[in-house]
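Chapter review: from sequence to fold.
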Amino acid sequence: MFAIGGYQTKTRIYRAIVYAVLSLGGIFYVAPFYWMVSTSFKPMSEIFEWPPTLYPQNFTIENYFRVFEVVPMALFYWNTLLVSVIIVAAELLLASFTGYLFEKIRFRFKEFIFSCILFTMIIPFESRLVPLYLLMDQLGLVDTHAAVVIPALITGFAIFFFRQNMKAIPDDLLDSAKIDGCTIIGRYRHIVVPLIKPAIGTIAIFSFMHSWTDFLWPLIILNTTDKMLLEQGLAFFSQGVEFQEEGARMAGASIAVIPILVVFLFAQKYFVRGIALTGLKA
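The token string follows.
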């Protein structure tokens, strides 16, 4: 009896410690985001007050009007949305079909080719910058959105993730469809895709977040203002004299985060299921 009571007490203490650590971690990661949004609604005089205020004492939306005055936000938004949608759609199609081929179709050197794809995941992107730029220069794609899209059309992580999810699809189900005359593409379209919706939602979130917030490669490959993406454009104009207001800068950063939050809210159930199911598959 005392042993059971002592075990329950230890369990409660352990849970309290875990919850406390998780709560502190959550606060640590949310604090910069909260400070950014809070600052975007403060007037300039309040932003540099000491001690700083945790929330706006004199609420204003002037910073949001200001950022649209000095930055072509609509153009940056359109460029980034166009590039992100193309990348997400292409990666979902190409990576899911490639993962399907590696998992469910037999062909020579399959494991060797897949190992080579996994090997590319450990190569830092910075080590590929120079050869990638030279390749785009030879193709005449420098300062074009195509140069941003092409390197991100498919990734090794997405192929690996889809293949892991497809391990749960019974081979007998696909063999039955094959006997009935269903082609490889037909089996992929009518059987595989409906069964991997959680994985599709997960990769859609990852791909959209990466393409929407990508900064280094667009900074190198894009030169003209009308081609810039959102992150690059905000950084470029933040260096100008006309955009030194901290409140407007925070407003621009807050606006840039909105699409990521919207996508995550709509696809979070698929994201959670995709991550959970992937961990259960051998």
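Two observations follow directly from the output. The mean pLDDT is 82. The chain has 14 helices and no strands.
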